[in-house]
Amino acid sequence: MFKDTHNHILKITPIKILDLSIIINNRLILNNISCEFNDGSITAILGPNGAGKSLLLQTINGLIPISNGKILFNSKQHDKNIRKQQAMVFQTAVLLRRTVLGNMEFINSLNNKTNSVDAKSILQKVGLENFMDKPARLLSGGEKQRLSLARALLLKPKLLLLDEPTANLDPYSLKLIEDTILEENNNGTSIILTTHDMSQAKRLASNIIFINKGKVIEENSSKEFFIKPKSVEAKKYINGEILL
Q: Where in the sequence is the domain holding 44, given as residue range(s)?
């Protein structure tokens, strides 16, 4: 349904992070991080609370200024054209005080579009076709998150960033969102997500980046990471132990 018809658009993957540090309020949050996100992959960023997962995602999206180091998008540094080819879904849905369809039409208006065909087809994709006229604020938590994902997909991003996209959601919403993630990836979208759900990481991710205390501890394929992690920290995390 959403095959790439924009071959002229600048290719922004693979993404290489080189010696990246983020300092906020004189506190070192991300410490000399280097890692890579492959073209067309689904990468899960794993780690305990406070490790820096969400901050790394926001930095890739251009929401957090870089203190040191750099991020290269297919050898190019961040600019407005690269930003336009990304979309981010936050853990807590932030929706407009409009109907479900009204939220989608607002995104279309940002792109100078008036055709609602894409909007309605994407809402159907995430199971919201019968909620188009419902105020977004009256949706359940799972429905709100599905609407957030739908708005992101309307931008037709080449890079989709998902911060804990299914945390505390009902099973129906979780399944719909995961199925949509896999379909978008099959259609060529590169995806980076954070999650505490290791079963989800196993279902979705081809690659794992494990971080702790603002540092990349391990970077591996999903299969290798869960079967034979290289680091002591990763082994403890997989076994459910508390990392101090």
A: 15-95+153-238
